[in-house]
């Protein structure tokens, strides 16, 4: 099928936008033909081919399935992170604090350590436990500045252990990172995270 007129092109574009939205919030078993039928009936002002009560019940069932799948995925992520951290804690050079934060010293600096009220300048790589980088000031080529008290708990604790020039590798349990919610689409819920952090200066 070709789309030659302006109206056809825009109509196709509207359909693409709706399809992209559906793909981003889909569920197993979605039936595109049924979606098209519902769209056509609504646009034409036709009565619903499925009674309202049945629609409500079906939506509730799918919502429950999605919630259960999300919960299972979150539990798996939490277990995977805990297993990684338990094994990592046994490695030589890895230190574990009372909170559960793990770190190893890659380079030792000198001078005063920052406090909660300070702002710091850092370079960092943020990674998942499999090594995939999700954020990096090094790759952007520009250090980041932020208050010690304005970052995730694992960072706040670690920064106060560091002198300027110190570089640590942090292994952060989800409880000290983004927790049960994650961070937008970038970091899933219950993710243990790994950071290489270099404290450049207290500003």
UniProtKB/TrEMBL annotation:
Any GO MF annotation of the entry: peptidyl-prolyl cis-trans isomerase activity
Q: Which domain of life is it from?
A: Bacteria
- Which SUPFAM superfamilies does this entry report, sorted A to Z? FKBP-like (SSF54534)
Q: Which reaction does it catalyse?
A: [protein]-peptidylproline (omega=180) = [protein]-peptidylproline (omega=0)
Could you tell me the EC number(s) of this protein? 5.2.1.8
Write the record's keywords in alphabetical order, separated by commas: Isomerase, Rotamase, Signal
- Domain PPIase FKBP-type stretches: 117-203
Q: Which BP terms in the Gene Ontology apply to this protein?
A: protein folding
Q: Does the keyword Signal apply?
A: yes
| NCBIfam families from the UniProt entry | PRK11570.1 (NF008602)
- What's this protein's family per the entry? Belongs to the FKBP-type PPIase family.
| Name of the protein in its database record | Peptidyl-prolyl cis-trans isomerase
Q: What is the species of this protein?
A: Ferrimonas balearica (strain DSM 9799 / CCM 4581 / KCTC 23876 / PAT)
